[in-house]
Design a protein that fits this description.
There is one protein chain. The protein folds into two domains: 127 residues, 3-Layer(aba) Sandwich (Cytidine Deaminase, domain 2); 202 residues, Dihydrofolate Reductase, subunit A. Helices cover 24% and strands 24% of the residues. The protein contains ten helices and 16 strands. α3 runs parallel beside α4. The longest helix has 12 residues.
């Protein structure tokens, strides 16, 4: 199962389908094949693994899968039927399928006489697909809001310059977090002022997965904007309403969106109650002035403050990454501290 999880993590993140891996073992425990789901419309992990063995070679085999085999016909057929037809004798899976349209594979397999064992490393599998699972529950894409700031909460100096408040380790972490989302969003103000690329990079190298670049607002992009060179087409949302942006992201096939700003856009998402996770990179510096990370988010009194539950704190070079979620939200408890990056983030006005 750990190998299946490793395989799953190589699949694209942030889309309408989960990351899934499969290991196919022979009756004697030998490795027959491995499979991974590579995105919407491609074979599911089980079908991918089965396609790598000759006909009849999977009779009596065990399929170890990170997600309950689907029992749904969409762009591909149900994995439950494919496993039964191949003669697989046992299926071990980690996470039950939270999608009511696809669930039921375990029941179909058992009814066909296949031994089914569920829940192996379920917590790790659920963590891998947390945003995808949450998007099913929420009925909309998962929203992460991110900014980088000085200790006094400023995202830029008085003249508007902001490169760089945080250090190289924090920025690298941010790019990895971009790549873990289906879309990345800024407002037209940030797009025009900072000319961001909105790509996910490791140094100068583009990471394998690139989120859909989304620009929210009424103004047009400059003809020579860096966004025109993004490897994926820019999704323009001609509105000021964050709900319109979330709907457009869902229609574009993403189950999560990374909101980088600037402050007007981040504040609009916060005020609308659309933020599921907050990532704040804090640099040990002071800037003063009025370039604050957020503006009005609908908190008139201290009694109305938006309480967050700390989930993680990481030290990244000289900077800190604070990960928090609205109190009472799933996964909002259990503070974890670490000197390691763990995973990624970005900032609204650091320009790219």
């Amino acid at each position: 199962m750990r190998r299946a999880l490793e395989l799953a993590a190589t699949g694209p993140a942030g889309g309408l389908n989960p990351q899934v891996g499969c290991v196919l073992l022979g009756p004697d425990g030998s490795l027959l094949a491995e499979g991974v789901h590579r995105g919407a419309g491609s074979p599911h992990a089980e079908a991918d693994a089965l396609s790598r063995v000759p006909p009849g070679a999977a009779v009596g085999a065990t399929a170890v899968v990170t997600l309950e085999p689907c029992d749904h016909t969409g762009r591909t057929g149900p994995c439950s039927t494919a496993l039964i037809d191949a003669g697989v004798a046992r299926v071990v899976f980690a996470q039950p399928d939270p999608n009511p349209l696809a669930a039921g594979g375990a029941a179909r397999l058992r009814a066909a006489g296949v031994r089914v064992d569920a829940g192996v490393l379920a917590d790790e599998a659920e963590a891998l697909n947390e945003r995808w699972s949450a998007s099913l529950r929420l009925g909309r894409p998962w929203v992460t809001a991110k900014w980088a700031a000085s200790l006094d909460g400023r995202i830029a100096a008085a003249d508007g310059t902001s490169r760089w408040i945080t250090g190289a380790e924090a920025r690298a972490d941010a790019h990895r977090r971009r790549a873990a989302h289906g879309a990345i969003l800024v407002g037209t103000g940030t797009a025009l002022a900072d000319d961001p690329a909105l790509t996910a990079r490791d140094g100068e190298r583009l990471l394998p997965h690139q989120p859909i670049p989304v620009v929210l607002g009424l103004r047009d992009l400059a003809p020579g904007a860096a966004l025109h060179d993004h490897p994926r087409p820019v999704l323009r949302v001609p509105s000021r309403d964050p709900r319109a942006a979330v709907a457009a992201v869902a229609d574009a096939g993403a189950s999560s969106v990374f909101v980088e700003g600037g402050p007007t856009v981040v504040s609009a998402f916060l005020a609308a109650g659309l933020v599921d996770e907050v990532l704040v990179y804090l640099a040990p510096t002071l800037l003063g002035g009025d370039r604050l990370a957020t503006g009005d988010i609908g908190v008139p009194t201290i009694a109305a403050q938006r309480r967050l539950a700390l989930r993680e704190v990481h030290r990244l070079g000289d900077d800190l990454l604070v990960v928090a979620r609205p109190e009472g939200a799933p996964g909002s408890g259990g503070l974890h501290t670490s000197p390691d990056p763990g995973t990624p983030s970005t900032r609204p006005t650091e320009g790219d």
